[in-house]
NAD(P)-dependent dehydrogenase (Short-subunit alcohol dehydrogenase family)
Amino acid sequence: MAEMTEYGDAEWQQVFEVNARGPFNCMRAAGRRMASRGHGCIVTIGSNSASIVKMGQGLYGAAKAASHYLTNCLGLELAARGVRCLVVAPGTTETAMSRANEQVPGGREALLKGEPGRYRVGIPRGRFAKPEEIASVVGFLVSDQATHLAITTITVDGGSTLRP
C-alpha cells in the first residue's frame, strides 16, 4: 500500500492487468457464449474499494471500479439476450492480501475499528469476512432463486461502506 504519487507505471500496469483486464477477458468470452445460447449469469468479484476511497488503495480501487463498470455495461448490453451480469463487492476478507494489509499502521485492529484520520470507518460487524461467506452470495446469485437480479452490485462487507 503506497500513496498515489509513489506508484510507478509497472505497478499501475500490474494492478490493472489483474483487476480490470483479467475480468474483462473472462466476461467477454463468457458473455459471447452465454448470449449465443440465450441465458447465463456472470458474477465479477469486485471490491468495496471500488466505491469508497481508502488511503493507500488508489490503484486497486480504481482497477476494481473499472471492473465494476465493465460488468454493468456488459449486463446492459446482454440483458435482452438472457444474460445477467452482477458484481459481488466484498470488504476485507480473510485472505493472503488482507493479512498483508494488516501491516498498515495499527494493523488488524485499525482495519476492524477504523481510523478516522485515514478515512476508514472500520467494520461494524467486528470481523473480516470468511471466503465461504462471499462464495455463498455468489452461489445464490447464480441460482434460480435470483433470476431477476441483474446489473447490480451486492456489497458483502460487514457494513463498512455504511450505505443507506
Q: What stands out?
A: The mean pLDDT is 88. The chain has one domain: 4-156.
